[in-house]
Fold:
Amino acid sequence: MTTAAIAVDHARASRARRLFRRFASRPPAVVGLVGVILVVLIAIFAPLISPYDPAQGDYNHVFLTPFSAGHVLGTDDLGRDVLSRILQGSRSSLSAGLAATLLAVVVGVSFGLLAGYYRGALDTIIMRATDVMLAFPFLVLAVGLAAILGPSLNNAILALAISSVPGYVRITRAEVLGLREQDYVQAAIVNGAPDRVILFRHILRNCVSPLVVQASVTIPTMIIGEAALSFLGIGVQPPTASWGIMLSSAQGYISQAPWYALIPGVAIAITALSFNLLGDGLRDILDPRATK
Amino acid sequence: MTPRLAVKDLSVRFGTDEGEILAVDRMSFSVEPGEVLALVGESGCGKSVTAMSVLRLLPSIASVSGSILLDDTELTTLSAAEMREVRGRDISMIFQEPMTSLNPSFTIGFQIGEVLRRHEGMSRRQARERAIELLELVRMPAPRSRVDEYPHQLSGGMRQRVMIAMAVACSPKVLIADEPTTALDVTIQAQILDILRDLRERVGTSIVLITHDLGVVADIADRVEVMYAGHKVESGPVDDLFENPQHPYTVGLLGAVPRPDLAGGIQVRLQEIPGLVPVLRSEPEACVFAPRCLRATTECREAMPPLELLQPRQHAACFHPGSRVADYSEGVSA
Amino acid sequence: MSENVLEVRQLKKYFSLPRSSGGSVRAVDGVDLTIGQGEVVGLVGESGSGKSTVGKCIVRLLEPTEGTIRLHGRDITTASRRQLRGVRTEMQMVFQDPYSTLNPRMTIGDIVAEPMQLHRLARGRELDTKVAGLLDKVGLASHLRHRYPHELSGGQRQRAGLARSLSVEPSLLVADEPVSALDVSVQAAVLNLLMDLQRDMGFSCLFIGHDLATVEFLCDRVAVMYLGRIVEEVNTTDLFRAPKHPYTQSLLSAAVVPDPKLQRTRQRIVLQGDIPSPINPPTGCTFHTRCPVAQLPLCSDTSPTLTDVTGRSHLASCHLITADGTAPDVTLSQTTENAWSKT
Structure:
C-alpha cells in the first residue's frame, strides 16, 4: 500500500513538475503570475497597509502631486490619499473580476453541458438565446443590464456575469459535442452509467483545461468592465473607492491634475495585463492542442 | 550495377523539450533501378523518418548526418532550390493518408498538371492531356471526366490513385511509398499494389516501400530491410528473409502475424514480443533489441552486434542469429 | 443444443441525411445473426459494410430502425435505458481506438472499478481485490492501477479496456476491431489474451474486423458483410477452405499473406471499382456492380436470399450457387491483364 501510494505521488509529482517546468520556461507567464499574486495580496491586506482612511478627506491638502510629503501618490479633489484609495479599489476590482467570472462559468457551463449532451429542442433553445445575447457587444449588454438592475457592486457583478455567459455556453457545448463521441463515454453508456456520472465524471472533467484558460482571459475583461460600469456611475457607489470611480472623478480635472487620472488607469492596465499573461501561459501548458 | 539510390550512415537526431532523441542511427541501404525495397518495422522504429530525410522534408529540429546519393548526386549538400527541383522530378513520395495530401480547393487535374508545368515546362493544355494519361495509367475509371473533379468527390482508393499519378508524373527515378495501403480496404489495397507493380515494370521506377504489413512486403518487395529502434537489424532478399529469418526481432515479427491458413487447420498461439520499442537518447553501446530478446546474453547487453553476412545474401546484426522459433514459445528466461 | 446468447433478426439501421438530400444511408439492411453459448463469431467486411453499426445496435449505442435483438431470449430492441441497466452486465463492448477508450482523467484502477461500482457488484476491500485480480488477468502489472492512461502504451490501454469490459463478467462481448490500431507484435499479444480469456471465462464474443487472418485465428464462425447485408456465413474452416460467395472469394484472394512464395503462386482476383455508396445501393444483388461472374439481368434485377447452400449450415446469398452447392469460381473469370505473375 505504501509503495503504491508513493507511486501515485511520484506520478502526480512528475506531471506537476513537468507542467511547472513548461510554465517556468515562459517569462511572460511568470511575470503575469507574480503580478496576480501581488494584486491578490494587496487586496487582502489593503486595510492594514493603507496609510490613511481612503474615505477621509482633508480640504487643506487637495490635489497634492505624487511624492508629496506623507502622500506618495498625492491626494484627490477632496484631499483623500490616492494610494489608500488605489489599495482599497483593488478589492472591488478583484472581487468583481473573480465573482463575475465564477458566476458566468457556473451558469454557462451548466447550459453548455445540457445543450451539448441532450441536443434536440433544448439545444436549439439554448443556442438561439445565446446567439441573441452574442449579437450585443459585451459592454453594451453589461451596461444595459446594470442600468436595469440598479447601481451597486453586486448588480454590476451580476450584469457582467450574465453578459459573458454565452461565451461559456458555446465553449462548453463544443467540448461536449467532441467528448460525447469518445469511446470512454460510449463505454460508460454500455455500462449503464446514469447521465449524472457520464456528464460529470466523463465529460466535465475533460473540459476543465479549456475552461480554466477561458476563465483566466475573462477575469481581466471583468475587471475592465467593472471599472467601466463604476466610471458610468452604475457600478460601485461612492464613497467606496473603485478604480472606475477614481477615473470618472479625475475626468473633470484632467488638465489641472493629469496624474490623478493616470494612476487608476495604470492600476487597471497592470492588473488586466497580469491576468492576461497568466492566462496565455496557462493556455500554453494546459491546452494539448497548442502544445502537441 | 550502380544503385539508383544509396544511403550511407544516415543518422537523424531530434532536439525536443525532453532532450535529444536519436531516431535513426547509422542506417545504410541502397535501391537498384526498378527494384522494390521494403523498409519494415513497427511504429517508432524510424522507417518514416528515414524516408523523410531522403527527401529532406524533416522539420528544422532534426539534424541529419550521412550521405544520400541519387545516381551521382549527393542530396545532403544540395541547396534548398536545387532540392525542390529533385523532389517531384527525380524522387517523389506518396503518403498513408490521401485525404490530407491533396489540396481540397483545386481539381485533381490541376494538381497533377501543376507538377508537370513546374518540372517539365508544359503548357496548361499539354499538362491536362498528360494528367488524363496518368489517371489512365493508375486505372482511374473514366479519367476524362474525373480529371475535373475535386478531391472530396473521390473515394479513398481513388485519391490514393491521384497521389500516385502525381508522384509518377515526371517518371521519377525513385518513388517512396509510406504505408500506401494502410488506410485502404483489402480489395482496394490489391488494386493499388497492382498499380505500383505496373509502374515498376513500365516506367522502371525504383520503389522504397515503407510498411509494417508483412503481407504487403511478401506481395510486392524484392528486398527487405528490417528496422528496430532506428537501427537496421536484418536485410536480405524477400524469399530468403521470410523463409529463414536470422534476427530474433524478424523471427518475432513473422510469428506475430496470424496467417490465413488457406489449407485449413488449427491455428496455434501467436508469438508475442514482450516489452516496448525503446526511445534512444544517445548511440547505444549494446544490442538495442536485447531488453526484449529471449536469446539475449551478457554479450548482447555489453556490446553492439555488427551487421554481418550470415546467409549467402542475408545480413543480420545479432550475436545469436538463427530462425529458431522455439526460443519464443518456450519462454526461456533471459 | 444450448440456448442462444444473442439472436438478431432482420436488423436494419438507416441514418437519415440532412433535409437537402432527403435520402438515408442504409448502413445495415436486414441482418440475421445468432451467437451461441461460448461461441466466437466474426463479422468481417470492408469500410462501409455496416459491421460496426451492427455491433453498436446490439449493445444499443444506436437505436435500430427495424428488427429485433434478443439477449438470452429477452427482447431488448426497444428497452428503455432504465430497463437496459439490468442487462448491461450481460453485454459489454471493447473499442478500436486505444487513445480514446479510456478517460484521460481517471486512473486505470478507477476505470476498471467503475462498472462494478455502477452495478454495485463490489465495494471497499472486495472491489480492490477484484480490480487487482482483473489487472492480473489481462497481464497488467499491479502498480499500473495508479497510473493515468497517457502513461500507458497502446497495447496496455487495450488490456485495461478489456479488464473494464470483463469486470462485470458479461456473457457477450462485442469487440469492435480491438487490435487494428496496434502494432503487429502488440496485436499478437492482445489476440492471444482475448483467446485465453474467452477460453477461461467462456463468454460469447462478436468479433468485428476487417483482417481475415485475425478473424480466422480467433473465430469459430464468420459472417461476411457487404453493403449492410450478410452475404455468407459459415464455420471458419469452411469459409477459408471453400468460400461460396464471389465476394468472399475475392476478399480472400485479395488478402496478402506474409509468405512471398505462396503469395506469388496464389490466384489473385483484383476487384474493379469501389464499394458503392450505401445511400443508393445497387439494385438486385448489391455486389453485381463489382462481381466478376455476375449474370445480367438476373443479378441486377432480383435480390438473392441468404440460404443454406450445402445443407451443413453454410449460408450464402448468390443466384449463381446451384442447388447442389456448386459455387461460381471467380478465379476462372480473370482476364489475363489482371492476373499478374512475377517472372
Observations:
- Residues 103 and 291 of chain C are 44 Å apart (CA to CA).
